[in-house]
Amino acid sequence: MAAILELEKVSKSYGALKVADDVSFSVAPGEVLGILGPNGAGKTTLFNLISGDVCADVGRVLFGGEDVTHRRPHQRCRMGIGRSYQIPQPFGGMTVFENLLVGATYGGAMSEAQADPVCIDILEKTGLGKKANLLAGSLTLLDRKRLELARALATQPRVLLLDEIAGGLTEHEAVELVSLIKDIKMQGVTMIWIEHVVHALLAVADRLLVINFGSKLAEGEPDAVMNDPEVKRVYMGIEV
């Protein structure tokens, strides 16, 4: 099956600091790729390169077989690349429903008439239906995380980028979130998920990619990657 997203030898530097170093990987349609790595390893930079927030110095980003390396973020979003951010960024003075409408109309290029039923459906699926008319700024952390995910879904992504969406949640809240992400996976949405809550990631991911100092350290089946001696040393601090 042809990959829906590919990075080909992508590099990015800020002066002498190389934050992505010759990174290549691909993601198949419907797959969930988990990304692990120490703080500062370059994980969020990869997302910025995929979403268009940052442009690669070298290499290519392909989406659906098309070279999008120099496409702007809003163009990539409308093509089907949606993302959440590590720190939720809702429009606090707007309602939960209005936040989704922004995603659907501007990110998903829908008319308001098209967007309304889509947003209502996503609110129900993400457990926010009863909070649709609350101001986004009044939500708890879990509900802000849900809203961040819901707004990304409102853009109707073919590939969804999740950046540490379980971070800061209690054990029970993380379990709820994993259940929601599993439901999204069942709907056929391709996902790339950066996460430090490893048990949450392992509950969903089909493959793992480990990044260190901007370079690919390991990639493959979750069990094999987690048992890799170099991954244990670099990520878990275990000398093997």
Which structural traits does this protein have?
four-stranded antiparallel β-sheet, six-stranded mixed β-sheet, 10 strands, globular, 240 residues, Rossmann fold, alpha/beta
Question: Can you put this structure into words, describing what you see?
Answer:
By secondary structure, the protein is of the alpha/beta class. The protein has two domains: 1-80 and 158-240, 3-Layer(aba) Sandwich (Rossmann fold); 89-156, no CATH class. Helices cover 37% and strands 25% of the residues. It is built from nine helices and ten strands. A six-stranded mixed beta sheet has the order 6-7-8-3-9-10, sandwiched between helices. A four-stranded antiparallel beta sheet has the order 2-1-4-5, covered by helices on one side. β1 (5-14) and β2 form a beta hairpin. α3 (96-107) packs across α4 (112-125) and α4 (112-125) packs across α5. The mean pLDDT is 94.
List the helices and strands and how they pair.
Layout lengths: L4 E10 L2 E11 L4 E5 L6 H9 L6 E6 L2 E2 L5 H7 L1 E3 L12 H12 L4 H14 L15 H14 L4 E5 L7 H16 L3 E5 L3 H5 L4 E6 L2 E6 L1 H5 L2 H6 L6
Parallel strand pairs: 3-8, 3-9, 6-7, 7-8
Antiparallel strand pairs: 1-2, 1-4, 4-5, 9-10
